[in-house]
């Protein structure tokens, strides 16, 4: 629950400290005194975005702090989930600079607005006049049913199973689309594979064929060159081997007379042997080279085939053609495997659909079971607040397609008068009736959801007299289960508070400030009397105020 609210340098507020009671807190004040400013400040620590200029003194930043007692509300898991330090008294702080930049903290740890909202939704429910139309929305109507039915775990289970089912359906759809596309491409893919397989592609074949083609095209020149080389080395009248042999003979003759002669003889002898080997190899090479026009035609045709395939399929080389062939072969083969995957996924979809259906049915059954209790409790509260003939009907339409709420559709129908058929609430309820219906609904939901705090922000539009008194008593009763803060203009409601705060304006030399003070018993009597009869209440108004506060 909200223990304390500190506001510094915000709008018309220079500094306010508000210590709240754990039960019913009343906030009153003239129109424009600053009640909405206090709610705006509270909204900032609940995660609302900074809009407009809030800073009172541009030389300082705006600071809002809320002190919350969270020990009895099972929030530790949420703190752990958001990686926050859990403290029994949790402090939420929002700082806004004069430029409008803001920072948020929970127990001095910086947090995003998303985290702040996630936490605040578990701490405070603010109900204002603008929120009355919530009751017409399907979201809110299911919230009422599921809160009273205690369906949090069941809802989580359904949501988890629905997500798994949708994931399986999506996977099946994607696989079927891929198969359909593959089937459409299958004939073409098979044609490509057949053509590439019939080409009997070999890695590096182009390089080998191009080398062979160059040799075949120049065969006569190659043979002539090899023959000339052999002749120059060994067969001509003046050949290299003969010259080396003559040199060897001369060196042998003089070797014994010179230094290093034996080494020179050895080197000449080695050169003769090497040249003989080269000459023999050249002769052998010359024998293997032939002018083969038929082979040349084959090689040229083979190269042309490979070049055409590379160009046709727009790849870089034969190796890429081999990769394309293998890839398409795998696609063709995978069609058989994908059909098996489809059967497996269809079975998974059927299984997950059955699980979602069971979870949805469990939700629907629990809602159906709780409807009479909700109807009874709300109509009982409406009787207390001056609507003895009010009827609330809750229609559950079952067996709908899966949606966020299961397989149900819900509709709240309302009638305030005898003989009037229940219809959609917004069509038949006045502003005052809407406020009372919403009070009854919120009271029931708040008790069921165990929220620490609920704030009623001027929801007393359109009511007065005895009805207002009954509305105050409902709030007072609700405060036995949770903390309630009510901002009101009605003395009947104001008289029911455990603690009463008055918001007022104070004119200083250069500016006007909003102030708030907690009233003692005599001040409460005076304030309620002013709400009854004006700024100068008489004895009758004062006595009436005392009676209201004392519950007489």
From TrEMBL:
Keyword Acyltransferase: no
Pfam families, per database record: SMC_N (PF02463)
Ranges in a coiled coil: 192-236, 318-355
Domain of life where this protein originates: Bacteria
InterPro entries assigned to the protein according to its UniProt record, in alphabetical order: DNA_recomb/repair_RecN, P-loop_NTPase, RecF/RecN/SMC_N
Its biological purpose: May be involved in recombinational repair of damaged DNA.
NCBIfam families membership: recN
Keyword DNA repair: yes
Gene that produces this protein: recN
PANTHER family tied to this protein: DNA REPAIR PROTEIN RECN (PTHR11059:SF0)
Domain RecF/RecN/SMC N-terminal, chain residue ranges per copy: 2-509
Designated name of the protein: DNA repair protein RecN
Assigned keywords, A-Z: ATP-binding, Coiled coil, DNA damage, DNA repair, Nucleotide-binding
Family, similarity comment: Belongs to the RecN family.
């Amino acid at each position: 629950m909200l223990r304390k609210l500190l506001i510094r340098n915000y709008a018309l507020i220079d500094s306010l400290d508000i210590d709240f009671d754990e039960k019913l807190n009343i906030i009153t004040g003239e129109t424009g005194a600053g009640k909405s400013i206090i709610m705006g400040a509270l909204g900032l620590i609940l995660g609302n975005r900074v809009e407009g200029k809030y800073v009172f003194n541009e030389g300082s930043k705006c600071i809002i702090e809320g002190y919350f007692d969270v020990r009895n509300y099972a929030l530790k898991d949420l703190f752990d989930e958001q990686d926050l330090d859990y403290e029994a008294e949790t402090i939420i702080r929002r700082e806004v600079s004069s430029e409008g930049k803001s920072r948020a903290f929970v127990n001095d740890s910086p947090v995003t607005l998303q985290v702040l909202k996630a936490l605040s939704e578990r701490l405070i429910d603010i109900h204002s006049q603008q929120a009355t139309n919530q009751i017409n929305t399907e979201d809110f109507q299911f919230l009422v049913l599921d809160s009273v039915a205690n369906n949090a775990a069941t809802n989580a289970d359904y949501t988890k199973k629905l997500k798994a089912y949708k994931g399986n359906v999506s996977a099946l759809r994607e696989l079927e689309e891929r198969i359909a596309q593959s089937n459409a491409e299958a004939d073409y893919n098979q044609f490509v594979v057949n053509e590439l397989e019939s080409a009997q592609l070999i890695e590096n074949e182009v390089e080998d064929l191009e080398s062979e083609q160059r040799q075949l095209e120049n065969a006569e020149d190659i043979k002539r060159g090899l023959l000339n080389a052999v002749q120059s080395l060994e067969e001509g009248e003046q050949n290299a081997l003969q010259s080396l042999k003559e040199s060897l003979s001369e060196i042998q003759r003089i070797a014994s007379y010179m230094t290093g002669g034996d080494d020179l003889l050895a080197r000449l002898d080695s050169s003769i042997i090497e040249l003989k080997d080269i000459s023999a190899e050249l002769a052998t090479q010359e024998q293997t080279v032939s002018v083969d026009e038929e082979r040349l035609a084959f090689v040229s045709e083979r190269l042309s085939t490979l070049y055409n395939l590379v160009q046709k399929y727009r790849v870089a080389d034969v190796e890429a053609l081999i990769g394309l062939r293998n890839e398409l072969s795998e696609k063709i083969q995978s069609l058989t495997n994908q059909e098996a995957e489809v059967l497996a996924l269809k079975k998974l979809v059927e299984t997950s659909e059955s699980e979602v259906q069971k979870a949805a049915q469990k939700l629907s059954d629990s809602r159906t079971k709780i409807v009479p209790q909700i109807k009874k409790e709300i109509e009982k509260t409406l009787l207390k607040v001056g609507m003895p003939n009010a009827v609330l009907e809750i229609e559950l339409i079952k067996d709908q397609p899966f949606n966020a709420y299961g397989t149900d559709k819900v509709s709240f129908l309302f009638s305030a008068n005898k003989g009037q058929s229940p219809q959609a609430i917004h069509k038949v309820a006045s502003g005052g009736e809407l406020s009372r219906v919403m009070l009854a609904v919120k009271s029931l939901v708040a008790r069921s959801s165990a929220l620490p705090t609920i704030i009623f922000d001027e929801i007393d539009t359109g009511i007065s007299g005895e009805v207002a008194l009954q509305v105050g008593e409902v709030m007072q009763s609700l405060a036995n289960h949770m903390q309630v803060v009510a901002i009101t203009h009605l003395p009947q409601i104001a008289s029911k508070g455990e603690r009463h705060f008055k918001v007022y304006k104070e004119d200083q030399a250069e500016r006007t400030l909003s102030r708030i003070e907690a009233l003692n018993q005599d001040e409460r009597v005076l304030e309620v009397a002013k709400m009854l009869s004006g700024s100068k209440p008489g004895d009758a108004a004062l006595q009436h105020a005392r009676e209201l506060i004392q519950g007489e």
